[in-house]
Amino acid sequence: MNRFSIIPCSLRLSSIVSYAELIEFNGRDRLLSQARKLHAHLVTSGIARLTRIAAKLVAFYVECGEVTDAKKVFDEMPKRDISGWVVMIGACARNGYYQESLNIFREMNGEGLKLDAYIVPSVLKASRNLLDQEFGKMMHCVVLKCSFESDGFIVSSLIDMYSKFGEVENARKVFSESSGQDLVVFNAMISGYANNSQADEALNLVGDMKLAGIQPDVITWNALIAGFSHIGDEEKVSEMLEMMCLDGHKPDVVSWTSIISGLVHNFQNAKALDAFKQMLAHGLYPNSATITTLLPACTTLANVKHGKEIHGYSVVSGLEDHGFVRSALLDMYGKCGFISEAMILFHKTTKKTTVTFNSMIFCYANHGLSEKAVELFEQMEATGERLDHLTFTAILTACSHGGLTDLGQKLFLLMQNKYRIEPRLEHYACMVDLLGRAGKVVEAYEMIRAMLMEPDLFVWGALLGACRNHGNIELARIAAERLAELEPENSGNRLLLSSLYANAGSWGSVVRMKKMIKKKKLSRVPGSSWVVSGNVFVALVAASAGDAYYLSSSKKKRRGCLDPENGRLSKWFHQKQQTNPNTMRNPKRKDKERVERARVHSVVSITALAAGLSSVTSSESCSKYDDAGSSLSHRATGFTLH
């Protein structure tokens, strides 16, 4: 007779409730070591075999990322009724273990258990996030077969799923055929339109919603703000904010995070930082989603100062340990050239997740540290860490940058055969780049032809870059034509092809290409560089031959030292140019004008660097990672971005 069986019933019930609450408490604070001790006590006392306690343990282990332990507890449950399956599948889907969620659902289905309505939203969520359209549509058929189509949560999950697949028409069909169009269902459809760049349709649906006697809530307005932010309609965003206030709802952190996300998406990174400051001025403080959204703006602007301030806030507020925040910080430091800081941040992470590993592998890959990236990948495999499609994108990028062609090809097959991850467009782009860098341009083109999906601009761009490096004009022409179809307004691809023609001495083709660019009125983006010194943003833009300017944050235009007679940098470049034996000349163009334009664009970066360094103080050049929060103004709940 075990210890539990001799406890009186009244005391036993009290103990079960207490144990359940204690497991939940450990789960909230992720106290894994303490929870394991509690689990051991529950096992020895026999309480762990109770369905309620076992379900709590399953949910706890999944939330801590210990899916293997969760599955072990689940498998040892003496009675695995439908409630246990609901907990296991739901916990996996809720915590991002989508493939595991579907695998467990298949296992449940194999045991012949009757489908429960509570499981369906979790399975649909997993299908949505895995972009598994086949499984998702199969589940839709199951929903109809089981007559679950009147359940509002299932209907909204179906709408979310089809919207994520980009099939807005199917989402609308589900919405229209729903018998219970409540606030949740309306919000799902409004979000579906907004997330697919159909914000106007979303706004029209709000009108229908009001006619049906349903008033919009904060979620409704935030969906509209997100939709118009995503398409870059700042005027409409302001209008939505006003309407939201008139409707009795105050913009919250989600509202401002949506605005910041839209600005970053539309490359308005400076405006994104301004919006963040406005959010702070309204007494709202960032959450993990805000920080994750804002850090890419700092990355794009190479504004490490603000990035460190945000990092400091995340430390003080306890958000630094959030998986996606840690990943965004690693990405920011890595892309801004602070690889040492990224390594310190990674190694001090006690609980490394797949997201954290992926970010660090990307950092190593982008800095040419391919061997370290491979070591980290092997560490993930050895420790049983979950590998996803981003893991393989990162390691294939590392192989490409490091010239590890054979290893890259091996990993591409490993991804499919061992880990059952179907190649995505980004994987094909990496492989084309990998083969192209190795000189296997024809093999890269054959891989594109064998793709089961339509190649995007990144795949064709990788091939065009490889053709440029290895002088394959025939395949370059094919790649440039495909890119012209995908990006009709981008002159860069045609200019690159023109450069290949010039290298081959095909000046007639060069002239025809230039005429076509002129006929289509395609503009050429001028070369530019910038540097940030303290609070001063110094940018330099090449305007025309023999003339360039740098702009400080005070927006005063100043002439750069590019004068061929007086500029010391110009003289230096002129000497370098004369020593270059490979300088090619086009006999059908004015050599002087062409060389002068090339000289201006090449010296842009040097002049910007000189202009920036002239204003950098010695103290600024000695900044350290340890001072990440030094410029943080934090009083109780106050946070100021300087």
From TrEMBL:
| The entry's keywords | Repeat
InterPro entries referenced in this protein's UniProt entry, alphabetically: E_motif (IPR046848), PPR_At4g14850-like_plant (IPR046960), PPR_rpt (IPR002885), TPR-like_helical_dom_sf (IPR011990)
PPR repeat segments: 81-115, 182-216, 217-251, 252-286, 353-387
NCBIfam families (UniProt xref): PPR (TIGR00756)
One MF term in GO for this entry? RNA binding
Q: Which GO terms describe its biological process?
A: RNA modification
What SUPFAM superfamilies does its record include?
Answer: TPR-like
Where composition is biased (Basic and acidic residues), the residues are 590-599
Disordered: annotated segments:
577-599
Domain of life, per UniProt, equals: Eukaryota
Q: What is this protein called?
A: (rape) hypothetical protein
